[in-house]
Design brief:
The protein is mainly beta. The chain has 1 helix and 7 strands; from the N terminus they run H-E-E-E-E-E-E-E. The mean pLDDT is 84.
Length: 120
Amino acid sequence: MFKRFLLIISLISIPSYAQELTSDITGTVSNTAGNNVSNARVVLTYEPTNSETVRVTGANGRFSFGGLKPGGPYTVSVSSADFNSEEVSNVNLVVGDTTRLNFILGSIDEVLLLLREQNV
């Protein structure tokens, strides 16, 4: 009887070991023409501690952050030498879920010139 009880308890507890306690963020970086942006710098910032993790997109424009602490907030920023930077803030993660973020970067074709007038 006691062996049967132990067997039942051990079988019930197996699914609890398989539960995930982390979250993931994945996504792609492309330009306005729909082409993937490779070598883009993707920075994930965990706001409560201001800790950063950096990834670089591959030829397919994809990035991935795994094993993240659920909750947040997180900020994800993307930059590339040939494109404008983009950022998404207040990203909150749910245990066991994968959050997908897709970035579309516009090209740098405008120069903003700020002039400051000084009274003489």
